[in-house]
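Researcher: Next entry: Thioredoxin (Panacibacter ginsenosidivorans).
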Amino acid sequence: MATSVNETYSEIINGTTPVLVDFSAEWCGPCKMMAPILKELHGMLGSAVRILKIDVDRNPKLAAQYNISGVPTLILFQSGKVLWRQSGVMPANQLVKVIKQHAVLAA
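Model: Predicted structure:
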């Protein structure tokens, strides 16, 4: 789940690997519930999908760019395009279905 220090957000979401971005906040209870779910998702899909956590309070311009009004908001990107987005907590198995339905995963 770690990213290279040299890689920018833009480079990551414009890559061919699907990227699930979790827009969240420190003070948000449901956001804290997403952390173990995203860890489970990473365990299920491994390197087939990248997972980024973006703190909306530390990145207000990015949050505004995607009109994030509630947290957690999950957005799935691939090749720079928004494939799917939803606000609220979702279980890992449901996220796997969403990712497989919308993104092209490497074999």
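Model: Note for the record: The chain has a mean pLDDT of 93.
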